[in-house]
Amino acid sequence: MAERTVFQSLSQRHVVSLGPQASIWEAACVMTRANCGSVLILDTSGQLLGILTERDLMTRVLAKALNPQTTQTSEVMTPNPHCVEPHMKVSEAVLIMIERGFRHLPIVTSANKILGVFSVRDALPREIGDAVSLAEFNDQVNDALG
Questions:
Q1: CATH number of the domain bearing residue 46
Q2: Which domain holds residue 56?
Q3: Which of 116, 106, 119, 121 lies closest to 14, judged by CA?
Q4: Which of 46, 77, 103, 127 is the most exposed place for a label (fewest CB within 10 A)?
C-alpha cells in the first residue's frame, strides 16, 4: 500500500482561520465549534501570518494569566509557521513534528494556497511508527558523526 500524502490524510478539508486582531476567546470558540486543535491567523488578503494551537492557549495565555477577551491572537500565535506542501508523505511530516516539537503543520501549495492543517491525529499508527524509526536512525547517524 502506497503511503498517503498529508493532503490525502486530512480529516478536515476546510480552513479554520481568524484575523490577527481576533481575541483569544474568539479563537477558542472557533476551535471548539470546528472541533479542531488549531486556527490559522490570516491577514486581510488571506496571507498566512501564524498559527494558534491548543498548546498556545494553555502555555501562552492560561499559564500567564492573560485575559482571553482582551488578548489578540497576534500576541500569542506562532508567527511564520513551518508549512508543508500537499504532496509530502505523512511519515515525513510526522518526522518534522517529532524533530521540531510541532503538532500541527499548515498545508500550503507552491502558489501559497492554504489547503488545511495536518495534525498528528491525521496520521495512522504505521506512519507514526515509520517516522519514529527514521528519527531514531537520524539520531544514531548524528551520534556516529559526532
A1: 3.10.580.10
A2: 6-145
A3: 116
A4: 46
Lookup result for grid cell 500524502: 5
Instruction: Convert the pLDDT of each residue in 85-115 to its tens digit.
Output: 999 999 899 889 989 999 999 999 999 999 9
Q: Which of 42-51, 72-81, 121-130 has the lowest mean pLDDT?
A: 121-130
* Residue 115 placed within a domain: yes
* 58 lies in some domain: yes
Q: Is residue 1 part of a domain?
A: no
pTM score, whole prediction: 0.82
How many domains does the structure of the chain reveal? 1
Exposure string of 7-30, with b = 16+ CB inside 10 Å and e = fewer, is bebbeeeebbbbebebbbebbbeb
